Every structure is written in structure tokens, then in C-alpha cells.
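Appendix B, Record 12. Input sequence as logged:
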Amino acid sequence: MMNNKAKELGLENTHFVTPHGLDSEGHYTTAYELAILADYALQNEIFKNMVGTKNHTVTISGYPKTLSNTNELLGYLNGVYG
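Logged structural output:
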């Protein structure tokens, strides 16, 4: 499914092996194609909102836990959405 979408987007130097994107033999892309993929993903408002959230508190077993986005450019550099 992910490789089909990559082909649909014209990404010729991208191949996915796992859905989580962690290193795996045979999993590769280029910075340019990753930027194309990110631009495509940011067109989805739900995704854009999720990756653009700096902090969010969830409750786990009755205890609040704050999750923080580690993107240091978020909110610091104009035009960075996630």
C-alpha cells in the first residue's frame, strides 16, 4: 500500500519495508522524496494538526502524562508545520 502510494506520487527512489519507518534492510528514500511525501501528508488536516501539536496530555491508568513534540523548529520557525 505505501509503495503503491510512493509510485503514485512519482517517488522513484523510495521503498518501504515496514509501516513505522524504522531502519530495515530494503527501506530507503531520499531527502527530496521525503519532502514530497511530507508535503502530501500535510495536505491532510488531521495529520497536519497531529504533527503540529507541541504538547498533549493523555491519561494512562488514571495518571496524566504530557507528551511533547521534539521538533525544535515547531513554533520557532515560520512555515514549519510538524
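The longest helix spans residues 31-41.
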